[in-house]
Amino acid sequence: MTDVIVVGAGFAGLSAARELTKRGHEVLVLEGRDRVGGRSLTATLAGVPVDLGATFVGPTQDAVIALAAELGCATVPTHSRGKNLIRWHGKVRSYRSTIPKLSLIELLDVSRIQWRFDRLSRLIPVTDTWDAPAAQRLDQKSLEGWLRAVHAGASTRNLMAIMARVTWGCEPDDVSMLHAVRYVKAAGGLGRMLDVKGGAQQDRFPDGTQQIAQRIAAELGERVRTEAAVRRIARTGAGFTVESARGEHTAAAVVLAIAPAHRGAITFDPPLPEGYQALPAHWPQGNLSKAYAAYEKPFWRAGGCSGEALSDEGPIFITFDVSPSDDGPGILLGFADARTFDDLAPEARRERALACFTTLFGDAAAEPVDYLDHCWSAEPFAPGGPTAAVPPGAWVAHGRQLRAPVDGIFWAGTETADQWTGFLDGAVRSGQRAAAEVAAYLRS
Ligand SMILES: Cc1cc2nc3c(=O)[nH]c(=O)nc-3n(C[C@H](O)[C@H](O)[C@H](O)COP(=O)(O)OP(=O)(O)OC[C@H]3O[C@@H](n4cnc5c(N)ncnc54)[C@H](O)[C@@H]3O)c2cc1C
Predict the structure, then answer these.
(1) Which residues bind substrate (predicted)?
(2) For a surface tag, which of 157, 194, 430, 433 has the fewest beta carbons within 10 Å of its beta carbon?
(3) CA–CA separation, 103 vs 94, rounded Å?
(4) pLDDT class for 257, splitting at 50, 70, 90?
(5) For residue 184, what pLDDT is reported?
(6) Ligand 1: distance of its center to the CA of 39 in Å?
(7) 374: which strand partners?
């Protein structure tokens, strides 16, 4: 019998467990995978740590930055010196800011839509979003439906599609306009969310993000059990019996620190109230993949390029330079569109990714010394990511059940955060918030 069982050893679950332990509670963390970190997973490419999931952090992501600093995990600035590239309508051009070089009319249209988007965000609170007078109207529309309603031009719609793919792992048609507006507001605006300098891509961890989770797990020691997928949670008198792949455990309270879609794989006895049961099916995970290629040197730097690129043709639609230094190895990170990437055979994925790198950065990109990719949709357990791709209607119908506790059952996970939801920072904040809720519950 322990005080609290935390389900999930991602940044949310581990932050909740760390906070509860600090407050003097006995905790057990049950993780279904054979590792901690969840959507943070660090691998090695050409001897360099690379993140297959979460990579970047930036200003105002204070919770994850403070946690990393406490654990001794240093960041470095993301390389951004030089020209950015854009492949648009079959041509590769260079530009120097977040918004690519388009025609004057296209640029004006992008600014107009950005202004309208920001103005809408003033109408939507990040807390109790469903109660806002404009909520119903915005939740009925998809992002694409809204863009068409305000007559956004083709280039603006293409740019917003790129944003949807990298942010939610879905197309603009698949995401509720209410979700889009709330999500961007929780990140501090479009600029803050999309920029490198001053934005969410400003810094990265040279040793990877997963080390943060691993260090928390090391602190928690035997309190963390991996390969312990939770299948059933039964209320028993004053507490709960939790059945996992590693046996039965009992606790006074439970924190579920997993993505909303994955809640559906757990049987609750007695069943959760109706709205809670319906939520997982209406908050699906998006799908995003990553491809990395390593070269002896970051050769694009010598040609004056930053390594950052955008493309309206996939499967690679955004790139970054995550090389350790000018001396090499040079490492290109490409975000891949899961729809045209994940079903390919491994050799075909490599070929397609390298073809995209070559179109952007030249023939030298065709011959990497090492290559690696990762498809989150193909994960055998708890698949999908980066975050929930919340479809039209789902916020107003199910938002209330996202994190309201159910008598001893508490909810964490980045999707439940009001600030930087969808990011590592939101995950940490959600874990800390859930820990405070549980502590108050246990006191009462
Ligand atoms: C490709 C990609 C790129 C990203 N890039 C960034 C970035 O640059 N910056 C950033 O801040 N964020 C980024 N993110 C998002 C970030 O990874 C997530 O917001 C964050 O990791 C979510 O943490 P979490 O703890 O809420 O959930 P998770 O990390 O998903 O943790 C939940 C854990 O619960 C486990 N679990 C699920 N069901 C059960 C069960 N029944 N029993 C036991 N365990 C269970 C899962 O295995 C998982 O380990 C990215 C994500 C992806 C996929």
Answers:
(1) 335
(2) 157
(3) 13
(4) very high
(5) 97
(6) 3
(7) 290
104-194 — its CATH code? 1.10.405.10
Cα 206 to Cα 196: distance, rounded to the nearest angstrom: 16
Residue 98 pLDDT > 70: no
Residue 162 pLDDT exceeds 90? yes
Each residue's pLDDT tens digit, 47-96: 999 999 999 999 999 999 999 999 999 999 999 999 999 998 899 988 77
Q: Which CATH superfamily is domain 2-38+209-272+406-443 in?
A: FAD/NAD(P)-binding domain (3.50.50.60)
| Contacts (Cβ under 8 Å, ≥6 apart) of 340 | 314, 315, 352
Whether residue 1 is predicted with pLDDT greater than 90 in this model: the reply is no
Cβ contact 178:395 at 8 Å: yes
Q: Hey, what's the torsion of the CAs at 22, 27, 32, 33, to 10 degrees?
A: 40
CA distance 191 to 88: 21
In this structure, whether the domain defined by 42-58+75-80+200-206+287-378 belongs to CATH 3.30.160.100 is answered with no
Domain boundaries, the chain: 2-38+209-272+406-443, 42-58+75-80+200-206+287-378, 104-194
C-alpha span between 294 and 357 (Å, rounded) = 11
Query: Which residue puts its alpha carbon closest to atom 53 of ligand 1?
Result: 386
Tokens of 187: 């990140």
The pLDDT-based confidence of 438 (bands split at 50, 70, 90) is very high
168 contacts 286 by C-beta, under 8 angstroms: yes
Q: Look up residue 141 and give its two tokens.
A: 């529309």
Closest by CA to 382, choosing from 8, 71, 21, 43, is: 8
Alpha-carbon span 32 to 7, nearest angstrom: 8
Stated as kind and residue range, the H or E segment containing 50 is: strand 48-51
The residue whose C-alpha atom lies closest to atom 1 belonging to ligand 1 is 53
pLDDT > 90 fraction of the chain, expressed in percent and rounded: 94
Cα of 222 to ligand 1 centre, how many Å?
22
